[in-house]
C-alpha cells in the first residue's frame, strides 16, 4: 500500500494546485472579460460549487495519501499538517458557508433587478433593497475570494515543504 501513496499524493496535490490556480486566475478572468454579465453570472453560480467541492476532495485525497503511512504521516511534523488544516478550514468555509451565500445573493440580485425594472425607477437610481443586496453580496464575495487566496497560499506552503523533500538521482 505504501508504494502507491507517493504517486497518488503527488497527483492529488498537483491536481489541487493546478485547479486552484487555473480556476482562480485564468478561467474567472477570461470568463469575466469574454461573457456578458448575465452569462458570466450563470456560469459562475454553476462552476464555483463544483470548484469548492473539488478543492475539498483533492485536499482530503492529498492528506490521506501522504507517504509513507497516509494520514498518520501528516501529523508527524507540524509544518506539514498546519497548511492542510488552514487550506481545509478555508476551503470548507467556502464550500459550506460563503460559496452558497454568495450564490444565493447573486441570484437574489438578479430577481431584485427585475423587481426594480417593474418599479420604473429613474435612470441611474438604485433601490434601497438593491443597495442592501449589493453590500451583502460584496461582503460575502470578498470573504470567499480571501478564503480562496488563503487556501491557495496554504497549498503553496505545503508544496514548498513537499518539494524540499524530493530527492533526484544525479547519474
Task: Describe it.
The structure is a single chain. The chain has five helices and no strands. Helices cover 85% and strands 0% of the residues. It has one domain. The protein is elongated. It is mainly α and 171 residues long. Helix 1 runs antiparallel to helix 2 and helix 1 runs antiparallel to helix 5. The mean pLDDT is 94. The protein starts with a helix and ends in a 6-residue tail after the last helix.
Outline the biggest β-sheet. none
Secondary-structure-derived class: mainly alpha
How much is the radius of gyration in Å? 20 Å
Work out the count of structural domains: 1
Question: How many helix segments?
Answer: 5
Taken from the alpha-carbon principal axes, the silhouette is elongated
Q: Termini, distance in Å?
A: 29 Å
Strand portion: under 5%
Output mean pLDDT: 94
Runs with pLDDT <50, length 5+? none
Q: Helix and strand string, N-terminal first?
A: HHHHH
Number of strands: 0
Helix content: over 70%
Main location: membrane
Protein name: TMEM205-like domain-containing protein
Transmembrane segments: 12-35, 81-99, 140-160
Keywords: Membrane, Transmembrane, Transmembrane helix
Amino acid at each position: 500500500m505504501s508504494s502507491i501513496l507517493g504517486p497518488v499524493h503527488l497527483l492529488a496535490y498537483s491536481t489541487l494546485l493546478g485547479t486552484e490556480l487555473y480556476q482562480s486566475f485564468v478561467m474567472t478572468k477570461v470568463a469575466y472579460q469574454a461573457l456578458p454579465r448575465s452569462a458570466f453570472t450563470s456560469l459562475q453560480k454553476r462552476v464555483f460549487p463544483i470548484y469548492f467541492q473539488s478543492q475539498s476532495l483533492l485536499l482530503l485525497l492529498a492528506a490521506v495519501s501522504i507517504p509513507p503511512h497516509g494520514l498518520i504521516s501528516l501529523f508527524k511534523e507540524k509544518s506539514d499538517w498546519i497548511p492542510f488544516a488552514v487550506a481545509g478550514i478555508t476551503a470548507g468555509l467556502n464550500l459550506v458557508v460563503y460559496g452558497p451565500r454568495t450564490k444565493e445573493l447573486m441570484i437574489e440580485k438578479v430577481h431584485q433587478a427585475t423587481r426594480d425594472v417593474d418599479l420604473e425607477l429613474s435612470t441611474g437610481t438604485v433601490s434601497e433593497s438593491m443597495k442592501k443586496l449589493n453590500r451583502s453580496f460584496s461582503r460575502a464575495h470578498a470573504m470567499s475570494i480571501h478564503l480562496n487566496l488563503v487556501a491557495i497560499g496554504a497549498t503553496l506552503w505545503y508544496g514548498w515543504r513537499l518539494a524540499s523533500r524530493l530527492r533526484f538521482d544525479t547519474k
